[in-house]
Design brief:
alpha/beta, 3 domains, six-stranded parallel beta sheet
């Protein structure tokens, strides 16, 4: 038995499901189950948002065997209570050991392939760890970011492996009943998403657009040299602030303008980011008086997936480290597409 963990928003759910498919292919004789119990926990201070809950079945009609089905209701409630009381979110989202311990109390013993961050949290601060901390702060400066960007380009082949070497725990045969998945590695170059991308494009088939507003913008997208810019600042600024501070969008837009005739830019923003993007055109290397620009900021709540659907219909894509934006590029079927990412390791044609 293999149990694949899932949590977070739609983009990460799709990455986790992609891992589920790979794990099933690598372990054809094993029963594979999804575990997504975090969606049943009450949201508490310090937890990442689960946005609109589990969405794969509602949006794509995907049905996966869930490990919850193997437990009675009382046992499942004990599992939920045990995991909630662990407050794993205060340990850098260290869910794996506590979920495994909760399962073990109910008679299901699993080998942990998702790691245990308590080892990292409790170890002494050696000189090496202090140096890593200093480097992290250095790379958050403009000069440090530039150094990091060029070093990653230079060492990209070394980091991801030569000759498109497939790495990561998902590409293996597991010897025992195991708790696996949620590595999110398939968003990186060299980790094998290209092997199953055609299958994923068939599985991740969005429901037809029927409302007038999205149909109108879809018409503009399909009739122009459309370029999607995913600029979600509010909840992901802690990850992507360097994209706005250190010129990533300017470099990507400049490249697009060199390669694409009469590009039309479509911003996909949450409502908290749209106003900021409208007021900071220079951050994006655009002139809103001369460039053709549209803002898409009305798809909210359970309709948020429409933004990903529309991004995938654009001819080209500019995205950050957000898995939601990355999927917009991965699902784009345009054979001549240009996809831009800020990090050389993220799946994209170009990095800036």
């Amino acid at each position: 038995m293999l149990i694949i963990h899932m949590d977070s928003g739609l983009g990460n759910q799709m990455l986790d499901y992609a891992e589920y498919l790979v794990i099933k292919k690598m372990n054809p004789e094993r029963d594979c189950y999804l575990e997504n119990l975090i969606y049943e926990l009450p949201h508490k201070a310090g937890m990442f948002s689960m946005w609109n809950g589990y969405e794969l079945e509602r949006i794509f009609g995907i049905k996966v065997p869930n490990i919850k089905e193997k437990f009675g209701e009382e046992a499942w409630q004990r599992i939920l209570k045990s995991v909630e009381e662990s407050e794993f979110w205060h340990e850098d989202w260290n869910f794996a050991p506590y979920i495994i311990e909760a399962f073990a109390k109910e008679g299901l013993t699993l080998v942990n392939f998702c790691g245990d961050k308590r080892v990292k949290i409790n170890r002494r601060k050696t000189l090496l760890h202090v140096a890593r901390s200093w480097l992290t702060k250095f790379f958050q400066t403009r000069f440090g970011y530039t150094v990091k960007r060029y070093l990653r380009k230079l060492l990209r082949s070394y980091i991801i492996g030569k000759e498109n070497k497939i790495t990561g725990d998902i590409f293996q045969s597991y010897p025992k009943d195991s708790f696996v998945g949620h590595s999110l590695a398939l968003r990186f170059r060299g980790f094998g998403v290209e092997i199953i991308i055609d299958e994923l494009r068939e599985v991740f088939c969005f429901p037809p657009i029927t409302d007038a507003k999205n149909l109108e913008i879809l018409g503009k997208i399909t009739s122009t040299n459309s370029v999607a810019i995913h600029a979600r600042r509010s909840d992901l600024l802690f990850m992507n602030d360097y994209c706005y501070r250190f010129g990533y969008f300017k470099r990507a837009v400049r490249y697009i303008k060199k390669k694409v005739k009469e590009p039309v830019f479509f911003f996909f923003c949450d409502e908290q980011s749209a106003g900021w993007c409208e007021e900071n055109e220079k951050i994006f290397g655009l002139d809103y008086r001369k460039d053709k620009v549209f803002f898409v900021d009305w798809n909210k709540g359970t309709d948020s997936f429409r933004d990903m659907q529309l991004m995938a219909e654009c001819k080209h894509n500019i995205y950050t480290e957000s898995s939601f934006g990355i999927w917009g590029g991965l699902l784009n079927r345009n054979p001549g597409k240009i996809t831009c990412a800020p990090d050389p390791l993220i799946v994209a044609m170009k990095s800036f």
